[in-house]
Amino acid sequence: MNLLSRISIYSFLLLCFVSISFNTNAQEADTLKNEVDSKGLKQGEWVVKDGRNTVIGTYVDDLKHGQWVVFNENDYLSLVENYEHGLLNGFVLKMDNRGYVNKSVEWKMGKKNGKELEYTYGGRVIGLKTWKNDELEGLTTIYYDNSKLQEKGSYSANKRHNLTTWYDYDGNKIAEYMYSNGQLNGNQKTFYPTGELKTKELYIYDVMRGEHIEYHKNGAIKYTGFIINGKKDGVWLEFDENGVEKSRLKYKDGILVK
């Protein structure tokens, strides 16, 4: 079972959870009372009007506890939050104005921990992020509205790390970039939509250096030259698809000298 299939099942279970939450809270709403104890602390179940929205949840010693829900002006569920002693703990689900889930995030004692999923209308997943102690950590994927993968990468301590791959709207790979702690580091490649290598260049901690090569679709070299500290340096050559030299230019510190 591929990742998108597993996520789709996961999103279906979340939608079932939302449906149960909606029905349960709607039935209990009429019995809720807003109470304050002798110390002025909010206790028990509360119903509060927040503009056009209705907020329902429970306080324990003035701290939100358990499940809290928000209904919009049309009585559709728009937000589900779970708290423990005032801190978000568990799933947070956000819905559109028709009551369909468009985002779910896992929290643990006030910090994002686990998966964050984004959905289109009807529950199709279009984004996945992984959190650890409020920082992006691990796999991140983004999908186009046609369910084709747009971007797949990984994070460490809230920064891009290792390989990130980009795709066009039809699902063809168009770029592979290597990162180290948020900086481009290593060989960077782009591709023609038909799969052939288009460019290859080297970055060392966000600075381009070394040989830059651009290819024709048939694999023949189109441009080639060297970069020193992010600037063209030395002789740069251009070739046609048959390998015949078309031009020869010379650079020094990024400035054309010949």
Question: Which CATH class of the largest domain is shown?
Answer: Alpha Beta
Strands, total number = 24
- C-alpha geometry: elongated
Give the SSE order as H and E letters.
HEEEEEEEEEEEEEEEEEEEEEEEE
What structural class do you assign from the helix and strand content? Answer: mainly beta
How far apart are the first and last residues' alpha carbons, in Å? 58 Å
Report mean pLDDT, rounded to a whole number: 89
Biggest beta sheet attributes: 24 strands, antiparallel
Strand % is: over 45%
Give helix % range: 10-25%
Query: How many structurally independent domains?
Result: 2
Q: What value does the Rg take, in angstroms?
A: 27 Å
CATH architecture of the largest domain: Alpha-Beta Complex
| Total DSSP helices | 1
Low-confidence stretches: 1-13, 18-32
Annotated CATH topology of the largest domain:
Outer Surface Protein A, domain 3
What's the short story on this structure?
The protein is mainly beta. Helix content is 10%, strand content 59%.
